[in-house]
Specification:
The protein contains nine helices and five strands; from the N terminus they run H-H-E-E-H-H-E-H-H-E-E-H-H-H. It is an alpha+beta fold. Strand 1 and strand 2 form a beta hairpin.
């Protein structure tokens, strides 16, 4: 049975978020795609998202248009708003009316900015993966409530983004680990070659050659692998180790 047009569009957006999550595109592009896809959910007029800053990094945001960008920036600068609360509590805030007195009490500055921009209600959804907070997604709407099924689509988009980002993080970690292992292996091969060359050059055992390499590297504060490359690539009289 074919999906209704609105469901087909949401399903396509969901697949687009997951597809390509293993390529080399920047995480910011994933967030931009989430914001655009969320803004296309029926009943949503604009959307923005925030991803928590990694250790030593910066918080990343994306928005579907200038209104959403402004409201996202207001929440970050004022440290108030439904997006921040949804992230802090890891709980969805569905269809929050901005004209409600409680909204004015809870987020006074943000609420006024939202109303000035023509936004009458906000749905804020946490972005989490396996219990770990990633960020939050804000759906801004005007003059009509967001029905539960559309809010669920928004949450599915947020969940798909969390999975995509987690997959990309794991892939980058695996690549880094692979590169580190490759570097260590290459260095080990170079050191072994230098040990053999030096043992022959100085007419000593391989263990003695390695001991001399290690002591010289430590005394001159250079990497053992760099010293080993010098032994391999330079003539014997141009290295620190000359046969007596």
């Amino acid at each position: 049975m074919p999906l209704p047009p609105q469901d087909s569009s949401a399903a396509a957006a969901l697949l687009a978020l997951i597809d390509g999550s293993g390529d080399d595109e920047e995480d910011e592009r994933v967030l931009e795609r989430l914001a655009r896809s969320a803004a296309a959910v029926p009943g949503v007029d604009a959307a923005s998202c925030t991803i928590a800053a990694p250790p030593g990094g910066a918080t990343r945001t994306a928005a579907s248009d200038l209104v959403a960008e402004q409201l996202e920036r207001v929440q970050q600068e004022l440290e108030e708003g439904p997006c921040r609360d949804a992230a802090r509590t890891r709980t969805a805030l569905n269809d929050i009316p901005m004209v409600h007195p409680q909204s004015r009490v809870r987020w006074p500055a943000f609420t006024q900015h939202a109303l000035d921009a023509g936004i009458t209600a906000v749905t804020a959804l946490p972005i989490t993966h396996r219990g770990h907070l990633t960020g939050s997604l804000d759906l801004y709407h005007q003059h009509r409530a967001l029905c539960p099924s559309d809010a669920r689509w928004g949450q599915l988009l947020a969940d798909a983004t969390a999975i995509a980002l987690a997959h990309r993080t794991a892939l980058r970690s695996a690549r880094t680990h692979h590169d580190q292992l490759q570097t260590a292996l290459t260095s080990r091969v170079v050191i072994e070659q230098a040990k053999g060359i030096l043992a022959e050059r100085l007419d000593c055992t391989v263990d003695d050659a390695f001991d001399r390499l290690r002591k010289h590297a430590r005394a001159h504060r250079i990497k053992l692998s760099d010293l080993s490359r010098e032994v391999i690539t330079h003539p014997h009289w141009a290295t620190p180790f000359v046969r007596p």
